Amino acid sequence: MIPNRFARIKSYIDVLEKNIKIKNKHDVERLKGLKEAFDKKYLAARTFLTLKVVFFVLLYASVLAAFFATIPFLTNLSTYLIMVSGVFGTTISFLVLAVLHFSEGTVYSDLILLSNHMMIIYVHNDHLSHPDIEAYIRQMVEKH
What we know:
Helix content: over 70%
Strand content: under 5%
Number of domains: 1
Largest sheet: none
Order of helices and strands: HHHHH
Distance between the termini: 19 Å
Low-confidence stretches: none
């Protein structure tokens, strides 16, 4: 899996979920609803990320096709790339990438808000020290 900001948020929530047990029924119900919303937004974020990769590849193919069209002995490759990139074209790829970028930003904001709410519930119910959580936080700090 490609490391990305969405997976980092999800993995931190998973560490909290694994290590902190919630006993308050009201908090358990709230976490259940938040987790469902978080999972839907996480799936949307991964979908947007995948679509962005696909459209970047199409855009790259159209740039390569234009480059290879100028080299006489690479016309067969150029023809194939033009056929692949011609499905959407450069302009439509740019437009789709722009829409995906802004949509991804909105979903990312939603994920941050949902995860913050979930973390508050976990921290509110946590009265112990958890070595796994501390190790995960230390690992995040040392990586960057």
